[in-house]
């Protein structure tokens, strides 16, 4: 039986606190543990002001909503007008380890995958019993009907170790297969299909999957109507699979005179007919489907002839053969598309719409019935958007010559009365908001009425009010007939929005849930709100984006807690699900230029819960080809194991500022075109978001480069480059991860000179600057997005520089 969380055992008179309550102290009593300390810190956030006792209870309920309590009680005390909350709870123990052992034989599966309880979960004896019952049933379905088990739970402080001992018993063994199919091929196929399961435990689920797979494969072989089911016959733990086969008739196709269309296309059309009708196909069904297909290819005169016959194949089966004779004929060309009855749109404008929207065939002036019908709906939408809500456009009339080699397409348009917006009213909002709402709406007074944009207008009205602080504002008559009313003539339209504003929502306190490892200050840095600030949907979305961008959480959800009080003070709930912060990754691979490569990564994020991370990454590669080296080095090349090892440390909001910090060091051995080089590199980067769209960064990098094995002796040598690179980024993309529209601009300038530890020697001084502009544009269009990257820059060597070839 599940343990119930008794959160509220003592009810205090609500009337006494109807005017508000200030909680000045929270005392928490629990058994000492990491989870206890984490929850103590969580409940400490209860200190503050409340609208009422109900508000305080609701907040307490939210903080305790993730469960894990064996018992939970609290008392509220008052002393000289000051209130203190005393909380007493006992947490359920944590499952530290789950051990599953077998006494007689082992499974092919990891037994822990058969349980829903996991290490790290809160322990519940009832849940363990349910898992044991589920395990027994699962093992029975896997072919062990007499399996038994025992379990033991050992307590170690606030943790438990669960040990399970399973005796599988004698399994049911799959021994034989039998089917009633009249086809020898099907019988042999089924025997081979299940061959690798012989003399193994009979697992019902696996056999069902095998049978489903067999039915699909036999369909592809020509048994288009076949259906199969099985019944296991069990005798003394020996299983015979009795497979019932129906409709094992074999079909085949022979296509003649195919010249334009690919055989697979026609073949798949007929296969789809078998799937749809689940019976032998009539000649008329085949002809109708193929003629429709060729009609959509502008071959209106295509002819189809069917011959049916039967033959005996090598397995002595009767095969029903559909021999399909095709005369694909020619495509019908459209000589003109005509429009009549139109006054608002000119013929030229309509023709332009037609050409812009045309599908492939119509765009090259071939007959396309599918597009012509689509264009009726498109054209109707264009008229309706402009107020012609009663427009009538029937299907176009097609006129053909005697042989259907050419055609004309005629659209007849009845525009009818145009509707205008006579007035727009708002009910339930202060007058000062009306002008702003009218500004954002598409429909406006005295303008043609656009019913298609009404959905957007409803959203804009609600969202505009929500961004004013009425977080729960809604249009209550959005789906009612009284939202839009037409006059009797249909010439005028009145729009009336009935709005429920709800309370103005302002921040009282922030409640965090799920940050078991992440410190609260890390989250607070990403939340630019103070008590009393207005909460809007855009602000909550920005907070979600900022927290997600840290990379610490799988999911982030930020919502105010809804209440019915007139008091605008509202708690903001920030619920996060933390990631697994440790990562070990090994990635072997091959590249044509680098050859065989092996990459290893060891990293840990969120060190001490402070958004700090450290990553060690190394890559080894051995070239199998030297084509990327110059001819002389190719000739004299000796194998060298190249490598690149880096250690990176990052920290968000360093020193409690809004500046992110990163430092890394790397050592690399790399082969270049005309020399080999060892590179020692160290850099630090400081990044600061200036606005929602703009950020800046400063990078300092030092490189020590040793060049050797050069084709020309002059290229051998050592170089030291110290450079500082400030940059500015302006990001207008709709998404940083998967942008489909917008633009990205980055401008950086790199300064390298002896002041920044660049080399300064009699024969070599490094002193230069580089200016680089990196720009990306994302332009959406009908079927996707065009991404354009533009990079430009300049470099200038400053006076006093003496240099030679460098990496």
From TrEMBL:
For this protein, the record's Pfam families field holds: Omp85 (PF01103), POTRA (PF07244)
Q: Where is the POTRA domain?
A: 505-579
Where is the protein localized? Answer: Membrane
Q: Which domain of life is it from?
A: Bacteria
Q: Which InterPro entries match?
A: Bac_surfAg_D15 (IPR000184), BamA/TamA_POTRA (IPR010827), D15-like (IPR039910), POTRA (IPR034746)
List keywords of the entry alphabetically. Membrane, Transmembrane, Transmembrane beta strand
Under the cellular component aspect of Gene Ontology, which terms does the record hold?
outer membrane
* Main localisation: membrane
Which protein are we looking at? Answer: POTRA domain-containing protein
Instruction: Name the source organism.
Output: Peredibacter starrii
